[in-house]
Write a structure and sequence with these properties.
Three copies of one chain form a homotrimer.
Chain A lengths: L3 H19 L10 E11 H5 L7 E3 L2 H14 L5 E7 L3 E5 L3 E14 L4 E15 L5 E10 L13
Parallel strand pairs in A: 1-7
Antiparallel strand pairs in A: 1-2, 3-5, 4-5, 5-6, 6-7
């Protein structure tokens, strides 16, 4: 019997995560993670072949914060906007303490001149844990992109 | 503690709203709103700068009905189809009477010749109120598009 | 009063269905259907005009399995990946035994060289029935694509 309450809870967390990025509230983004944590962006092919890590890797909130700081300095983010559309999460395993879940995503990029394109599609492969206040957080979020063709500007969180 | 029942209810309303437009049942579209109401389409930049109103503005069901009537006369709608994909709603505030919520969207446009493109992405910034029969309706729906580049044909409801 | 539990259950089934295709676990795909069943891909125009059937039609699990076998042989699937993003299901009718529901979809195609495009948008028009173990299955899934422009390679399940 699937736990619909848990599904709704993860769906909500995912929506808040997406909103944080899309509304350019990036300084709040590391808060979605446990500490230590794993955040990584990779491609389907690399993930399937169990190749070490992807184009982006961080294992603590401090590293996530650093990333945002560099982003702000590089001023890349301000030149474009993003929009995440997410699927319904699928729970693979839940043992009370850790939840393994997977969620499909599509991210659109909107350039300053207004052009919109599909920036990336893929799935989040997540391990979730409860933080203080019973709030779910990402102990691990592997962003598995369908395409191996990464934009060289890829510095924004997905 | 988030109210998952309310989230599901708003998600359902949003799905019905999208279906109404995408299935070309536009005459039923004004029924999703309270009367009076606010329906407006604007861009992220204008919304962030609190500029008065966007490209489209209506404040009553009568105005919404007028818009549909002109659309039908102009025959624009028949030349293309739309498809909405929506995120999970996020409730910002709920005081029993009014619910403030936000929902991400992507709208695809399918031309008569079959070409499909991403027509618009953005978020609905909503105030919801209960109508007779306890049904939720939009007292206010601000359609905040990510891009400022509006199609000059933009006459369809988003 | 909408049955939010049922909506969540159908949403989950749809997410599992999408994951099965997008993760290239096609051999498990026929299991989502009842036997006999109806699986058909058609266009909005053909569906609206009640024209017999669409480009693809199957009425048993055996036919669905055949389709996957040919796909594997033709080796088409391996050259590209897909990503489904789905809307929230809308229940039209539920009489305890059969549930009639509709769900919006967008499918992206990711080519081997990394290019991503919107492959198809549309809606699933479904009749669901419970299988052994109380699990929902598709007694009928009509894939109604918004566009009539079908890729000649259309052989993958949508």
């Amino acid at each position: 019997m699937p736990d619909h309450q848990l599904l709704s809870e993860i769906g909500l967390l995912n929506a808040q995560y997406a909103r944080c990025i899309d509304n350019d509230e990036l300084e709040a983004w590391p808060e979605f993670f446990s500490d230590p944590c794993v955040y990584s962006i990779t491609s389907h092919d690399n993930y399937a072949l169990k190749r070490p890590v992807g184009v982006i890797y961080a294992d603590s909130q401090a590293m996530l914060k650093d990333r945002i700081a560099s982003l702000r300095q590089a001023n890349i983010y301000e030149r474009q906007r993003y929009r995440h559309l997410l699927g319904m999460p699928l729970v693979q395993k839940s043992d009370g303490e850790t939840v393994a879940a997977e969620t499909a995503f599509a991210v659109y990029r909107i350039m300053r001149d207004g052009r919109t394109d599909v920036f990336a599609t893929g799935r989040y492969v997540d391990k979730l844990r409860r933080k203080a206040g019973d709030r779910l957080s990402f102990a691990e979020r592997i962003v598995v992109c369908d395409s191996s063709l990464f934009d060289t500007l890829l510095a924004i969180p997905l």
